[in-house]
Every structure is written in C-alpha cells, then in structure tokens.
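Record type: ASSEMBLY
Status: queued
Input:
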Amino acid sequence: MSHPNAAEINTDVVIIGAGPAGLFTVFELGLLDIKAHIIDILPRAGGQCSELYPEKPIYDIPGLPLVTGQGLTDNLMQQIEPFGPTFHFNEMVETLTSVGTEHAPAFRLTTDAGKIFNAKVVIVAAGGGSFQPKKPPIPDIDQYEGKSVFYAVRQMEDFRDKDVVIVGGGDSALDWTLNLEPIAKSLTLVHRRDAFRAAPHSVSAMQELVAKGKIAFKLGQITHVEGNQGQLTAALLKTNDGAIEKLSCQRLMPFFGLTMKLGPVADWGLNLNENLVPVDTEKFETSHPGIFAVGDINYYPGKLKLILSGFHEGALAAQKAHRYIYPDKKLLFQYTTSSTNLQKKLGVS
Amino acid sequence: MVKINFRDTAAFYGAEPGGGAPTKVKITFVDSHGQPRTVEGEVGSTVMETARRNDIPEIAAECGGACACATCHVYVDSAWSEKTGKASQMEEDMLDFAFDVQPNSRLCCQITVRPELDGLIVKTPSQQG
Ligand SMILES: Cc1cc2nc3c(=O)[nH]c(=O)nc-3n(C[C@H](O)[C@H](O)[C@H](O)COP(=O)(O)OP(=O)(O)OC[C@H]3O[C@@H](n4cnc5c(N)ncnc54)[C@H](O)[C@@H]3O)c2cc1C
Ligand code: FES
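Status: finished
Output:
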C-alpha cells in the first residue's frame, strides 16, 4: 500500500514488538552503539505483561523476587532510556522485504500508518503475535470490514452524517461514542447491560447525551447485519428479552477488546513452525540473514516461553547484529560493572 | 517434537497447585455442535485449567486465567448455575468482551473446582476470540 505522505526513516535496527524481549534488546544493542526504532501495534510498551497482566506478580525474573507485569515494563523502560530508542506505537508492521545481500543485509518495512523504515537488521520480537480487535461472530461481517464496519477510527470524516451504531461498554466504546456524536447523523450505543467498565467521567458524559436525546442507548447484542457490497444498511439488535429490532445504520463499530493473532509475521517469507519462527541458538537469527527473532515468537529445541529466555536471546542477537552494522569493528567483551566505556553509554560514569 | 504454544504457557501460569490430597470430580464440556466430553477435574484447580489439560476445544484462555481476556467463556447448565454461583464484579466487567453473553455465562477460569461440582456441565460457545 502506498501512502501520499510516507516518511522514510533510516536506522540501524528495527525491532518489531515492544514486549519485554523487544525492550531489553534495545539495551543490549545500545551497549554496542546500535540505535533502534521499535514498533508496536499497542498504544504502550510491555506486550503481554502490560496488556494481559499488568497487576499480576511475576516471581521468576532473576534478581527481582517479585515484580508486576507493569512494574517490569516500567523498569525496562527506565533501563533502556539512556539509549533513546524511538517508539512508534499504534502501528502494525505490515510488510518486511529484503533489499540487501547475505553479507550486507538491508530491509524495508512498512506500517499500516504509512511509515517506511530502512534498516540493516530486523529483530522480530512479536511475541504471541499482534494484539488485534476481536471480531464478533456476526455472519458475513468480514464483507463489511474496512468499508462500513470498523474496529478503530482512522478517519473521523468517514463517520460524518452517518447513522452510527457502537457496540460495547468499555473505554473504547464510550470514547468513540463521545467523539463521534457531534459529527454523526445519529448514534446508537448498544451494550449487553446497563453498567460500564469505563472512566466514570465518560460514563456520565454518555448518560447525559442519552438524557438529552442526542444519542440512543439500547440493551442487547447485534446478531446480524444487512447491506450490500460492503455497505451496511442495518444492524439487527437482539434485545435482552429476546425481541429483534432493526437499527438502520451505515456504520457499525464493535468493541470487544483484543486478541492475539500471528498477523502479518506470517507474510514475511520467514520459515514458520506451528506459527513460530525457527532460529539458531547461537545468534537467534532466522533462516534469513539479518532477521533475528527473540522472545515468545521464536522456536528452537528446548525453547521456554519465559521472559528471561527473551532477555538472553536479545543479548546474543545483538552481538551478531553488530557484525552486520559495523563490519570493520571488532567486538570487545566488557562488563557494565567495570567498563568506563559502557558506563559512559549508560550515562553513569 | 514438542509442541509448545502460547496457550499452554498461559495455562501453565494460571495453574495453582491443588492443596492436599487431590480429589477428582467429573466435568462435562458440551461443544457448540452438541458433542459432550467428560473429563476429570482436580479439586482446587479451575474449570478452565481442567479444559486446557484435557485439550477441550472452544476454550482459548489466552490470558491464562488472569480474568483479562474473556476467551474462556462458557454457559453453565441451568441445573448447575446455583452451585457455580454468580460472576464477580471483575468477571462481569470482563464478560463485556465475550460474545453472545447470556444470563448463565461465566468465565470458566473464575470457577474453582470443588467437590460439590462433581458432574458439572458447561457448554462452550462457537467463538471465543
Ligand atoms: C497471564 C500470564 C502470566 C505470565 N507469567 C509469566 C511469568 O511469571 N514469568 C515469565 O517469565 N513469563 C510469564 N508469562 C509469559 C510472558 O509474558 C511472555 O513470555 C513474554 O511477554 C514474551 O515477551 P515478548 O516480548 O516475546 O512478546 P509479547 O509480550 O507477546 O510482546 C510482543 C509484542 O509485539 C507486538 N507485535 C506483534 N506483531 C506485530 C506487528 N506485526 N507489528 C507491530 N507490533 C507487533 C504485539 O502487539 C506485542 O505487544 C506470562 C504470560 C501470561 C499470559
Ligand atoms: S482465561 Fe482469560 S479470562 Fe479466563
């Protein structure tokens, strides 16, 4: 896909995925003077740790007897800060193409936000895959997706003067109810119950709009859609007492949270084994020179899907990445405890 | 070859050791096509863990029992809904992210296997994630 205002970014390394493995790889690369850009489809760092279990305790991070998913993420962010990685959140890497040679690899990556990256090395730290919106089991919904059924708003103008139905009771559903109400022709919020797990101020703002008659609120679930050629004409609402009501609409936005799907990683020409990317255990490089895979996404005999494995893998991948990026420089093994050179990089000397 | 997937890991992390001498109860999972599968569940573990250990289809349990994904949604058979009890506030909130939620909907990672649940029947929905 080509975008008119595509910005091209040139960098040593692109890391795909800001989970714990991707984050710590920034650190290991940074010690070797390698700069990284890191891309994640989520709006924040931490991968599974911050998305699935931010409050839960982790007991098996070496040296940290107890840390929560969010706590670990915050610590990692602090640890990699000296290396100034550039984060690109809310963006999914769609394509990855090789434009170099075996000995001088080079890659071109594009994201769904239209950015283009040119990198010498790519580190795939995509974990269990990309977090993607859950798609409700409405027959034929896929024929409307991207045309009149949306799981995220890319362009508000798509909703101007439309009859919009939003489904859900969380923050996304309520935020978009509040944001789209002024420009939509009509807006109906559908939720299974009259309780919302969203910021209290959004809930009260929404209730005020209902009281003023500016939006409608219906209890129930959407079971079917009607329309043709991807353009929606109506959504069928099954109310909680079993009645069916037809809501005429041209836009539908279901918000059912996120699920992990392998996603575009499958399309990059990498070998896959049960949806995992096989790597060697010396440098965690894939079958394609210059593309590494660390963390939950990789596979090798004996692999354990633990955070600590991802850390180790990132450290070794960084060593080989150095050879691609600085082919003429010799790598000196050093400790952060005693090397003034490393300490300078960390900003602690 | 060993197959390790994300969901096994998730179930692994959700696992709690069953305290004391393990007692087993029978749990039947009826899939969306009406096919029943009866397996043994260990007292003290959860219905979700029982499903994962026995490769029950139609239970994804992506978050490993953290009540954070709503992909372990089941419908509790009406004869059992009193014994399984009601969803907590947190579980009710999470059920908002499940599909076709009914009054007997539960997230089965939040149902602990107890001796009085021997014979429990739950139905699984056609789509979790
Ligand atoms: C409930 C639970 C408890 C756990 N407890 C522990 C524990 O106690 N100890 C332990 O060691 N491990 C634990 N784990 C496992 C641990 O969380 C994972 O091993 C770890 O998160 C893997 O890190 P990662 O960086 O490889 O991937 P992830 O954390 O999965 O992050 C990958 C990131 O890549 C992004 N991504 C993927 N594809 C793309 C793309 N195409 N474009 C842009 N971004 C993309 C995703 O959005 C995601 O943010 C637990 C897991 C769960 C679910
Ligand atoms: S396993 Fe995720 S909510 Fe039950």
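Annotation: Chain B has a mean pLDDT of 86.
Annotation: Residues 87 and 122 of chain B are 15 Å apart (CA to CA).
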